[in-house]
Amino acid sequence: MDYDVVVVGGGAAGLMAACTAAERGKRVLLLEKMDQAGRKLRITGKGRCNLTNTNPLRDTLPHIGSSTAGTTNKPGQTGGVWLRNAYGRFFAPELMEWFERRGVALTVERGNRVYPASGKALDIFLALIGELESNPNVTIRKNVTVKSIKVENGEWRVESDASASKEFSSLHLPLSTRIILATGGLSYPTTGSTGAGYRICRELGHTVVEPVPSLVALKCEEKIPEELVGFQLKNVQLSIHNSQSSIFKSAIGEMTFVNDGLAGPIVLSASRIATRALNSPLTTHHSSLTASLDLKPALSPEQLDRRLLSDIDANGTRVFNDALRLWLPAELIPLALPQLHIEYYKRLHQITGEERRRLRDWLKGVKFTLSGTHDWNEAVVTQGGVSLAEVNPKTMESRLIKGLYLVGELLDLDADTGGYNLQIAFSTGHAAGEAV
Hints:
This protein is 30% helix and 24% strand. It is of the alpha+beta class and 436 residues long.
């Protein structure tokens, strides 16, 4: 069979690209390296699949970062501007309508996050794969690992792993065939995300910003007391500092202590700013970033100082290590006591003004020296990828290789949690499928 379009990779972006091209009458070949497509898609959102966010476009763009968008040099700022054209044609309303037309009921939850009403990511995958399997113009081949894509002697040569069937181990295709590369990033490698697409793109002459784990737990140098591991804090605020200034401040939210550092929603958001520095081979002990945790974000330092004075006056005979429960969960006390340098059994009425201010400052900014991140097995997304300067934002076509389209996590785009990353995958996949 002859093919108009070859899609390499059966994740969210690849499936949407294949669906869009096939819907427009194109003969599509989808090559998937695993024994099943959509493995990562089926585990996203802890198996519930937060597929998009209903925030309007102007509120969405600041959640998306890029190193090469031309509008910012810092992840987490306005890299989303590059996506304006693709989002203008296929954004959250269109994506939601796409799934609802195929029988997937959706629900909007806290933070404008959109999920399948069933709470099952599988329903999102089944809608996509069902669309392809029901289309006679679509051929799906699994267990085919594409090793290289080249232009030789006036044709495409797509070489695959020798374990693939002979029919697909070496494809010779006319240059009129369009190839959509949707191989994903490096996060969750057990789902098939091995970063092979980055190597293929480099071999084709593309610039690839070195991938690093993002939306990931942060390691710290300080020892986390055993009592704290797994403990969750609510209504706290996290800031990240370099040697000069604060470079990130989270919204008030939740975080969790792990045995070697910090995790949870506000930490994942902070990791998008910290991860490149922490994964750089040039990072040293002296250049590590600092995380500062505000345990009382609703109170100004002055308000907190007045509260401490009032509590100390009312509980003057209590000893300090016991009285800490007035201001902290019991689980945090083993972390606080060694850092405060206040005698454990000192009566509150003996606390000096300097010691009270030390306690106040600690409550408003518990310090952690960041030393790294967790690895690809825990990272939600990849930061880095093919330079956006080398990709047409309207069509996702390579500016270097005519007929080659790059989508999804392969691109130098990443976003905060909240459905923004899957929307990038679906929108870039749709743009490529539409363009071909």
